[in-house]
Amino acid sequence: MIGSGLDIGIDLGTATVVACVKGKGIVLREPSVVAINRKTNDVLAVGKEARRMIGRTPSSIVAVRPLRDGVISDFTATSKMLKYCINKACSKSSFGGFRMMICVPSQITEVERRAVIDVAMQNGAKKAYLIEEPVAAAIGAGIDIAKPCGNLIVDVGGGTTDIAVISIGGSVVSTSLKVAGDKFDSNIIKYIKKKYNVLIGERTAEDIKIEIGCVYPRKEDLTMEARGRNLNNGLPVTITLHSSEIMEALIEPAMQIVEAVKGVLEKTPPELTADVSDRGIYMTGGGSLLYGLDKLIQKNTGINVMIAQDAISCVAIGTGKALDNLDALDAKSRR
User: Fold this and answer.
1) Global pTM?
2) Using CA atoms, how far apart are residues 279 and 47, in angstroms rounded to an integer?
3) What distance in Å separates the CA atoms of residue 102 and residue 116, rounded to the nearest whole number?
4) Angle 281-151-261 (CA atoms, 0-180°, nearest 5)?
5) What is the pLDDT of residues 198-255, one digit of tens each?
6) Can you give the residue ranges of every domain in the chain?
7) How many helices (H) and strands (E) does the chain have?
8) Residue 272: which of 294, 241, 303 has the closest Cα?
9) How far, in Å, CA of 289 to CA of 314, rounded?
């Protein structure tokens, strides 16, 4: 730590924002949602409280998700959300004295990188650093990335799936596709609208995905009731859904992830491919918990697939561990 300042790590995710402080671990985990009063531009709520407002606000209030597909889509709302995180993570006496490590998708542009750093600096960071999601996920999963051997990480988040082969502390081959948790939700919404002529909300779609969603046949066909609006008469309706039909809705985006994994493997140098074959594929992120996604990748690649312990927090934990190297990064930049 520098003076009275703190080192803060932020996983600025499309679905969830997680903050950790050096020496304290994870101090904040909230949905990436901000509720704003349109008339006054004041922030009314952030996180869980704001998420409850999605689809339930009057015209004067808007509940927004400031990050879409892993990048900042609403700069102002992101800045306000980050300020909320900093307030929660550290005392006012630390303001202006902290360094911040922010996690970003592996394939974001230079302009998008600059936007993330600007948000951090505008909210009091003394210095801001970026770390790629697959690298942070690998560190969080307990992999020693400093060794000269290949590790394949598949990080399925809310907005993006980041796939990378990591060796000697960096990505050798990587790709990022905008197919992840949000895409699974939107596919469920489209499927139910087409099959039942019923419109459901984002939160309902997410609940369906978690409860009965799958991309590989389950041993038993699960059922769940879901409420929505009948598009014929506009009235509320309850429908019964089966896991087998939700699989129909989810298999297309799941196969896009599988093809991306195969694409990365095809571009990987032979020595590292052999390492991956021996060591297996590591899956992290909330999306990796979708039933059968690991089995689907394993079936199509022939490589053993493991879901990391505490997969949802891997990126944040890795970002927190990377804070230990900030002094080395500072020394390198001074040289």
Assistant:
1) 0.85
2) 37
3) 8
4) 50
5) 999 988 999 999 999 999 999 999 999 999 999 999 999 999 999 999 999 999 999 9
6) 7-136+315-334, 142-179+251-311, 181-249
7) 11, 18
8) 303
9) 13
Which single residue is written with the structure tokens 């907005």? 159
Contact 305, 297 (CB under 8 A): yes
Residue 26 sits at φ, ψ, to 5 deg, of -70, 125
Hey, what are 65's tokens? 């998700």
d(CA 162, CA 173): 11
* Separation between Cα atoms, residue 212 and residue 201, nearest integer Å: 16
For the segment(s) 142-179+251-311, the CATH number from 3.40.50.700, 3.90.1170.20, 3.30.420.40, 3.30.450.40 is: 3.30.420.40
Rg value, the chain, Cα: 21
Distance between CA 192 and CA 207 in Å, rounded? Answer: 14
Give one DSSP letter per residue of 98-164, joined into a string.
Answer: EEEEEEE-TT--HHHHHHHHHHHHHTTEEEEEEEEHHHHHHHHTT--TTSSS-EEEEEE-SS-EEEE
Q: What is the pLDDT of residue 4?
A: 42
Instruction: State which H helix or E strand residue 322 sits in.
Output: helix 314-322
Looking at CATH, the fold of the domain delimited by 7-136+315-334 is given as: Nucleotidyltransferase; domain 5 (3.30.420)
* 308 DSSP 8-state letter: P
What is the CATH code of the structural domain delimited by 181-249?
Answer: 3.90.640.10
Q: What is the DSSP string of 181-225?
A: HHHHHHHHHHHHHHHH-EE--HHHHHHHHHHH-BSS--SS--EEE
Top-confidence residue, 139 or 69:
139
Tokens of 51: 């998420």
CA atoms within 13 A on the CB side of 253: 28
CB 132 within 8 A of CB 42: no
* Structure-block tokens of residue 195: 């099959």
Cα three-residue angle 282-288-291, rounded to 5 degrees: 120
Same CATH topology for 7-136+315-334 and 181-249?
no
